[in-house]
Amino acid sequence: EELGFMGEVKTEVGYLFDLLNTETYLDKEIGCNRSLRLCVFIDDLDRCPPELVVSVLEAVILLLVDGPISVWMAIDSRIVVQCIEAEKDGLFGKANISGLEFLDKIVQLPFTLPELTNDTKKSYLDKIIDDKELDPARVLSRFMKEGLDRKLL
What we know:
Layout: H1 4-22, E1 24-27, E2 32-35, E3 38-43, H2 50-64, E4 69-74, H3 77-95, H4 99-106, H5 118-130, H6 136-152
Parallel strand pairs: 3-4
Antiparallel strand pairs: 1-2
């Protein structure tokens, strides 16, 4: 109770690590048992209040320490950096650390998706509509085939 929210996160993450470390699966490609990994996807963090942004990033740090967890974040780093600096200004200001440097310590493999041109967007939408990519029968057929393929593995 004295540790607050981050203490609760650390306790829950510990339970999750224990569960993931007790289960394995057979990787037929390399012919051995492998540990399970959990992928956590975080989206729209840049739309949250600054204090929540920093709390989530601190929780991500706990998830990444010695755990079988991968965290994927889809964020606008410019906004997240501003949130970090707003929340940690006193601490970081004295140490001459920027919000970007803090974020760089958490994000291990950053990449940026290119801006799509209007022609590219239109082409994508035309393909979906004209080729019936999202036709329910087609989606169900692919899902059933993939589901059966997974069961056969």
